[in-house]
Fold these 2 entries.
Entry 1:
Amino acid sequence: MTTFKLPPSISKLVSARNELKDHYKDIDLRFTFDGNLVGDLGEAVAADLFGIMLTGRSNEGIDGYAPDGRSVQVKASGTKRGAPFRLVETSADHLLFFHFDYDQCIGEVVYNGPEEPVRHVLPASWDGQRSVSAAAFRRLNKLVSDGDRLRMLTEDRD
């Protein structure tokens, strides 16, 4: 398991969220990060930790390119669940899936490997979104050879 401290700019956002959560704990407001914000946080972390050159919102199915030229899709979650996929025409060469523990201000690289094996977990076609479970990501991650993984640029990990 590879864990890392969230970058300082994201840590500030998470700290502010945690202060709100603590302040309103008696009425059980959770101030969850969800949707586009979590995806954007994942892409920012991928850029910082792996040197991914992000493409912005213009490329469906590809979030950026690794230093070695591989196309990369980034998925992230702030829950213990997996990640949703949409059926798109373009698949990336590589996939990174992060889990963020906002209370501890750390992240975990749950999957770092080729996208194809993850896509094989999904049905051939579907409507809307389909999720791949965190357990499936972890199982598949164990099968990835070191040579197929992207290298982290930082050594700031646990």
Entry 2:
Amino acid sequence: MPLEHMQTATVLPVAERRRAGQALRKIVPRSMHGRWTPSPTRRDAVDILIESGRHRIASLLPIRYDRMRASPFGFFRGAAAVMAADLADTPVSGLWVQACGDCHLANFGTFASPEGTPVFDCNDFDETLPAPFEWDVKRLAASFAVDALGRNLGEKTARYLASAMVLAYRKHMLELAVLDPLLAWRSRVDVTQVLEDIGDSKLRARELKRLTEATEAAHKEYPKLVEKRKGRWRIKEKPPLIFPLTGQRDDTHEIVARTAFESYKLSLPEERRILLDRYELMDVAFKVVGVGSVGTFCAIGLYATKDDHALMLQLKEAQASVLADYAGPSLYRNQAQRVVVGQRIMQTVPDLFLGWTQDTGDDQQCYVRHLKDSRLALIGSDLAEGALPYHATLCGVTLARAHARSGDAARIAGYIGSGTAFDTAIASFALAYAAQNQADWRLFVEAVKAGQIEAHGA
């Protein structure tokens, strides 16, 4: 991973690093980030999607495309490769961070820390790679604009939400820039505290109740996903999104999954392997996930003890980041290791079971993580229904914290400043790109109708 591209904190004082960030405005004025005009040589979005689909499981692509044609936001979620190419044609500040790479409002959520405390954070790192910090900011801002317009809230609200996200990002980056590095590194978004700060008393009470219920449910060991049959724990079949790999006539995929889960242990610190070895891998199943991930090999493994304590891990295939052609390839030859390292850098609370497969003879590179509880993940993100500006602020704060862990918060803070120039520019870009996304989505829908792309539901 090209760490030399990320300007981490140096021995220079904060004030000097901040002035260095301010000096960059003369080279790339902040107003330049507000522009979006398609390049005359811009590739057709449908062509990019078809090309990226060649490396995926062909039989699952119609499900992916069906989810993308459902709405402009559904298309946006699956079109990270399209926007990566577009961002490469925009002005670059020169300030690099460990970027999410697919930064949109649906890729943030709540999960439980190892201590059981709910925290809000980025939760998707398939495309992570060092890149200019503003690429993540622009994609996240555009996602709020696309979502707002899809809800028929109008351009004024779309601009406001994008601006609110950037405002939160900018203010939090200014705060992080002057903190003791250790305090900044440890900072996290405590969901309980966040919900208690909601001004609307009814919304606050509703969300705190949902958080309590979801947290309690998350401790009940996956009742909706597992069952005991003939004395052995099994993953419940939910075709065509979850189907068993154990006991099938063709056991190729089962062998691949079980081998991957076994080889992944080698990437874990020894104390984590000791913990995992207290469970036995009982069952494996294929799982169709997300929008962007549909078409990649994804499996879940059910582990259990002799006393019926359950643990579920998720195995996901990793491919080259969509940013690689524009920000440079990862120094990690194993793409799964790239994802794991990126997640460890960006997330405050580490996943105890995060690791990657070590089989050098297999070109299917996978990473493994603790399977998150979907009910808990919706806490915070579901606020978008009742408090969109609040959700935008939450995501902005979280992204700033994630960027500050790898980049130089003082330089970034110096560049974006204490005024609203950067906010205004990014909000303008978000609206302009939302219009571009709308146009691309329409072309995509027409391509489906014309039979160029096959799309059908699961």
